[in-house]
Each structure stands twice: as structure tokens, then as C-alpha cells.
Amino acid sequence: MKIFSRAELEHAVKLDTVALGVIRNGFVALAEDRVVMPPILSMDVAENNGEVDVKTAYIEGVPQFAIKVSPGFFDNTKLGLPSLNGLMILFSSQTGLIEALLLDKGYLTGIRTALAGRRYEIVYVDDGSTDRSLEILLGLARKYPELQVRAHEKSCGQSTAIRTGVKTARAPWVATLDGDGQNDPADIP
Asked: Glycosyltransferase 2-like domain: from which residue to which, for each copy (predicted)?
């Protein structure tokens, strides 16, 4: 197993077009439904104004996957410590063996955030429409990585569509809009 420090990762991974291509490919795989991404495991450590998130995803055909552990202890600045920290564990997707420990302390997340651009996502749930909506949306999702498309094989109703969208969303805040135009998207802050 290899262990990489933040300094080594900063030397190897730059804020450049190579990293942008890797991130883009990940969003494309997500839009094409080739990603296994379980919900975020989140734990509050309220007595110390902290939280820990554990995130992972697997992209079909990629030889490794990572598990990211990201603690945030927001009073640490009062102690002269960083409020954000973290690491990633890289596993072989063929054997499940640990290949590397990335002691990035949030550096790789910072690169991804900087290159991902917009800080929102759009989740569209096609509830069994027959008007080519799904085909059009899948085409748009290939162009716009912030768009995620989920589809029901048959109409399941508004409540189920909203549930699918909320379960798909990765952000801590969710706003819902129906496709009938009843609500103005400009009302979303």
C-alpha cells in the first residue's frame, strides 16, 4: 500500500485541464447512470461543533474506487487548527484490496470543487413520459454535468417522483419544481 501526503498530492495533481477531464468524465458517467453512489453517511459531533461525512462511488470499468472521510470541526480555528480535514482510501475494484492512502486534508476535494464550476445540481425525474422528454434530457445530461436524469418506467405519481429526486440529490438543500411551470425557477434563491 502506498501512502501519499498532501504535499505529494499537490505536486502530482494540479488545477489543470487533465484534472478537468477526469472530473468531466466522472460527471458524464454519472449522467449515463454508470456510477454506483450510495447516500452520504453523515455523523454530527454536536458537542464540538463538528461533523464527519463518508462518501464513496464506483464508476463501472474503472480499476479503483475511493472512500472519502471528510471531517469538519468548525471551532478548530479558535484552537489554531484547520476546520476541514480528511483523507481518501483507494481500493482495487477487482480485489477490494487497499492500494493507497491519500492524506490530502481536503486538497483533492478543493480541486474538484474549483473545476466543477457551478455549485448546484439539477435532478430531473422523468415519470414515465411518452413525449421524448427522457431522450432529450439524456442528451442534455451529456452536455451539462450538473444535470442528473432519473427515469421511472411508468408513471408513479408526483410524490414518488419527488422522492426519487430527493434521494438522488447530493446537496444538503433541495428545492423542487414541477414540470408544469406553476412555480417560477427565479424564486429559488
From this structure: 117-188
Residues 6+ apart with CB under 8 A from 26: 35, 59
Cβ 18 vs Cβ 25: under 8 Å: no
Phi and psi, residue 36, nearest 5°: -100, 115
123 strand-pairing partners: 148
Cell numbers 460527471 correspond to 27
Q: For the beta carbon of residue 62, count every other beta carbon within 10 angstroms.
A: 14
Q: Does 180 share its domain with 131?
A: yes
Q: Which domain holds residue 174?
A: 122-187
pTM score? 0.59
pLDDT tens-digit map of 118-144? 567 889 998 888 888 888 889 888 887
The C-alpha atoms of residue 96 and residue 90 are separated, in whole angstroms, by 9
Residues 135 and 181 reside in one and the same domain? yes
Query: What is the number of structural domains in the chain?
Result: 2
Q: Cα–Cα distance between 141 and 97 in angstroms, integer?
A: 33
CA separation for the pair 19, 7 (Å, rounded): 17
User: What does the pLDDT look like over 21-63, one tens digit per residue?
Assistant: 888 888 889 888 899 999 999 999 999 999 999 999 999 999 9
| Alpha helices (runs of H) in the chain, residue ranges in sequence order | 6-12, 17-31, 107-116, 133-143, 158-168
8 A C-beta contact, residue 58 and residue 92:
no
Q: Identify whether residues 7 and 94 lie together within a single domain.
A: yes
